[in-house]
């Protein structure tokens, strides 16, 4: 209130009053609350909302607890001017009025509430009175009921005890009756063959009879029972031994016998012996199927029989055994494992014999299906009898068969390759006999390549069956890893490519080396084949293999580059050998022609000798043959067809000019000097040098070999004048026709010059023929 | 003595006029009945009274009678077979007291017994093409070297003739001549029409043992020798040197009969080249 009084200040005046009540309302309410609180004894300190800073003990505080009107008035009168006094007076009056009206409202509201509360209390009082009466009545009734109930149970107590006793007696009597009836019942059961029932009865009664055997009557029953039980056991054993019935019934017999307390050891042995008998019969029937005669049922049927007959039986025996003799412990399990191992081993031996018979056949899908069935059948007992290791053994057999199949396919591929070669040989030999053109070399090459490729693909597809997803053994580690990488990739594909290269190379070192064994065209074809393999086919095949078999194994594999290098080497060797063989053929022709002629007494040359024409013809034929398979290759730039002829003529005339003067006896030294000087500037010729993979290089090699032979042969002979002239003519003829085949025609010129020079040296009367005449003769030839 | 006689008895007499000593015709082998002579061989040991000549397909043994200056044909044999068989060369073995001769015709090498003039052994297809020359190992009695038109040099054990003991393929054209060194038979000389002369060291089939046996026995030296011996341990057949002085085909090579380290080669252009075995190799062999 002080704040309110001081807040507006002297300047605020009555103009503020309309807003005053609203602004002061919370203040006033708090004040009223404060009073109520005071009334109800709440300490002044706990009242919240006091304006901070105001001292609660301040006697001038209108709202404080220690308000002293006198002090307040004193203070006002002392401190305030008159106008402010007047203001505070009107303010005070207004506040008092408002407080009054508030007070009246409060009192009115509270009064109403008091009245309604009083009414309610009065009504409650009436109701409670009524309820009290009813509760009293309820209590009396309950007491009556309790009384009755007690009386009824008292009366029934007696009967209840008697009924309980009677029920006990009845049960006992029934047990006794069962006991007394037991012998007859057992007999009846045995007679009817309800052995199970009998054994159950016996089992129920045994303990009781055991307990009360000191009583004579019970003892009699027990004796009877024992006799019957003995008979029962006897009959069961009998039935068990007869063994005619199937495994389940036997198992039942054994179960009953065990329930009768027969010794488990003995039963176990007997059980296994019976099982063995049955399974051996199965094995015998399988063996009969195997037979010495060609096996009638296919391998799939065989494995089916084995699977259903033997493996099924073994499964039944094993599961029955495990159920029956579980109590035997590890010793029993061991016995079973030994039993399974032995019989399983015999079964596997039979299966392997059968599979071995299958090795020769080409049908992989049937074999894989058979193996799949075999493996699948054995997985179940394998899980049942981990100790016997049947599954592992089965997997091993499958792996072995897979390996053998790989070997078989490799053999097949090799045989196919050799077959292809034989076909090619025949095709090469045939046209000569028939006298007409057979298939061209290029066509033959394409045939061979495609047939080998299709064989490889077929083998891959056949082998791929082993890793098919639906085959039960394909997820074994061997088939996922080693089979793919070592078996298929390395063993089959790489092995085949290697063996192909080896086979091809073996043509190079055939012992005769006369080339008679291998037709040169075959060498050429093989060489091209190997080169094609090097450039494309090997990487294609290996990529195909890697894709099909998704090689996951990390073991090192032969890289493509190694194989390519091998193939290239083979191709190179074959081509070099081809050059040697063809060179030899022409060499022999030239050598014979030089050696068998009497050069001293030959006539003046009129013609080119037929053998030279033959050499040119053969060289042309070789050129055509090589051209079918190999590219042209690079010649030295100087050779252009039009200039060729004139150049060769020019060269021939120049060569004439060069050695012509040397024949005069006056200057015998010049010959040597000239030829030596010429050699000083010419490159040394390596005659049997490796060739490159193109036509020109091949032809150059062949011509080099031939001409060198000619040179050496000429040097061993002695020539008359006309002999020399004949050589001159021949060489000129060769020069005319051979330049076009070689990479560097200078080489031909050089060698032929040598030949003529050598002949001249071996001639006692060296008079060369006029170049123009030589030309005329050659033109005419 | 025999070497000098040889040219005199066969070549035209006017050739000898140019030599310093004039040659005197001692004896004439009358071979007109047998075709052209391919090769004449003196008996390697003995008194030099026997000569064998190969003429076409005949092998003829002559007895020289010094007193009368006549050569008497003492025995002969001839090759029979289809086609025209011609001997190309031959060698008289220095072993077996001069009773064995080896001859070559086409690709075949034959051994003959001079006492009975019958064939002892026959190496069919000794080379892929013509066999050009033969030589016997002077220290190992059954070893024979041959060379031919297939550019190969082959070593044979005449006791088992199905497979060559060793094959060399160093030349690039026909090999015309092959000679064992007279005293160190691991040194083999070959001359070829590729104008090269090759000196090979055939340690593995030589008569000299690997390493030095004496050193092994000598315990005091053993420790010093050890490292050296280790380095020599793997005896490798190798080409010692290729001589390329010739400009044309080399037709003959031979060792000096006086100095075992000296050899000569002769080529078509008339060049005679004399070479020495490399000094390092010489010391290696000697020490």
UniProtKB/TrEMBL annotation, chain A:
<keyword id="KW-0813">Transport</keyword>
<dbReference type="GO" id="GO:0048193">
    <property type="term" value="P:Golgi vesicle transport"/>
</dbReference>
<dbReference type="GO" id="GO:0007030">
    <property type="term" value="P:Golgi organization"/>
</dbReference>
<keyword id="KW-0653">Protein transport</keyword>
<dbReference type="GO" id="GO:0007041">
    <property type="term" value="P:lysosomal transport"/>
</dbReference>
<dbReference type="InterPro" id="IPR014812">
    <property type="entry name" value="Vps51"/>
</dbReference>
<protein>
    <recommendedName>
        <fullName>Vacuolar protein sorting-associated protein 51 homolog</fullName>
    </recommendedName>
</protein>
<feature type="region of interest" description="Disordered">
    <location>
        <begin position="1"/>
        <end position="66"/>
    </location>
</feature>
<dbReference type="GO" id="GO:0005829">
    <property type="term" value="C:cytosol"/>
</dbReference>
<comment type="similarity">
    <text>Belongs to the VPS51 family.</text>
</comment>
<dbReference type="GO" id="GO:0015031">
    <property type="term" value="P:protein transport"/>
</dbReference>
<dbReference type="GO" id="GO:0000938">
    <property type="term" value="C:GARP complex"/>
</dbReference>
<dbReference type="GO" id="GO:0042147">
    <property type="term" value="P:retrograde transport, endosome to Golgi"/>
</dbReference>
<comment type="function">
    <text>Involved in retrograde transport from early and late endosomes to the late Golgi. The GARP complex is required for the maintenance of protein retrieval from endosomes to the TGN, acid hydrolase sorting, lysosome function, endosomal cholesterol traffic and autophagy. Acts as component of the EARP complex that is involved in endocytic recycling.</text>
</comment>
<dbReference type="GO" id="GO:1990745">
    <property type="term" value="C:EARP complex"/>
</dbReference>
<keyword id="KW-0445">Lipid transport</keyword>
<dbReference type="GO" id="GO:0032456">
    <property type="term" value="P:endocytic recycling"/>
</dbReference>
<dbReference type="GO" id="GO:0016020">
    <property type="term" value="C:membrane"/>
</dbReference>
<keyword id="KW-0967">Endosome</keyword>
<dbReference type="Pfam" id="PF08700">
    <property type="entry name" value="VPS51_Exo84_N"/>
</dbReference>
<keyword id="KW-0333">Golgi apparatus</keyword>
<dbReference type="GO" id="GO:0006869">
    <property type="term" value="P:lipid transport"/>
</dbReference>
From TrEMBL, chain B:
<dbReference type="InterPro" id="IPR036322">
    <property type="entry name" value="WD40_repeat_dom_sf"/>
</dbReference>
<dbReference type="InterPro" id="IPR019775">
    <property type="entry name" value="WD40_repeat_CS"/>
</dbReference>
<feature type="repeat" description="WD">
    <location>
        <begin position="124"/>
        <end position="160"/>
    </location>
</feature>
<dbReference type="GO" id="GO:0051049">
    <property type="term" value="P:regulation of transport"/>
</dbReference>
<dbReference type="Pfam" id="PF00400">
    <property type="entry name" value="WD40"/>
</dbReference>
<feature type="region of interest" description="Disordered">
    <location>
        <begin position="209"/>
        <end position="239"/>
    </location>
</feature>
<dbReference type="InterPro" id="IPR015943">
    <property type="entry name" value="WD40/YVTN_repeat-like_dom_sf"/>
</dbReference>
<comment type="subunit">
    <text>Interacts with two multisubunit tethering complexes: EARP composed of VPS50, VPS51, VPS52 and VPS53 subunits and GARP complex composed of VPS51, VPS52, VPS53 and VPS54 subunits. Interacts with SNAP29.</text>
</comment>
<comment type="similarity">
    <text>Belongs to the WD repeat EIPR1 family.</text>
</comment>
<dbReference type="GO" id="GO:0060341">
    <property type="term" value="P:regulation of cellular localization"/>
</dbReference>
<dbReference type="InterPro" id="IPR040323">
    <property type="entry name" value="EIPR1"/>
</dbReference>
<keyword id="KW-0677">Repeat</keyword>
<keyword id="KW-0853">WD repeat</keyword>
<feature type="domain" description="EIPR1-like beta-propeller">
    <location>
        <begin position="23"/>
        <end position="199"/>
    </location>
</feature>
<protein>
    <recommendedName>
        <fullName>EARP and GARP complex-interacting protein 1</fullName>
    </recommendedName>
</protein>
<feature type="compositionally biased region" description="Basic and acidic residues">
    <location>
        <begin position="222"/>
        <end position="232"/>
    </location>
</feature>
<dbReference type="GO" id="GO:0016567">
    <property type="term" value="P:protein ubiquitination"/>
</dbReference>
<dbReference type="InterPro" id="IPR059104">
    <property type="entry name" value="Beta-prop_EIPR1-like"/>
</dbReference>
<dbReference type="InterPro" id="IPR001680">
    <property type="entry name" value="WD40_rpt"/>
</dbReference>
<comment type="function">
    <text>Acts as a component of endosomal retrieval machinery that is involved in protein transport from early endosomes to either recycling endosomes or the trans-Golgi network. Mediates the recruitment of Golgi-associated retrograde protein (GARP) complex to the trans-Golgi network and controls early endosome-to-Golgi transport of internalized protein. Promotes the recycling of internalized transferrin receptor (TFRC) to the plasma membrane through interaction with endosome-associated recycling protein (EARP) complex.</text>
</comment>
<dbReference type="Pfam" id="PF23609">
    <property type="entry name" value="Beta-prop_EIPR1"/>
</dbReference>
<feature type="region of interest" description="Disordered">
    <location>
        <begin position="1"/>
        <end position="20"/>
    </location>
</feature>
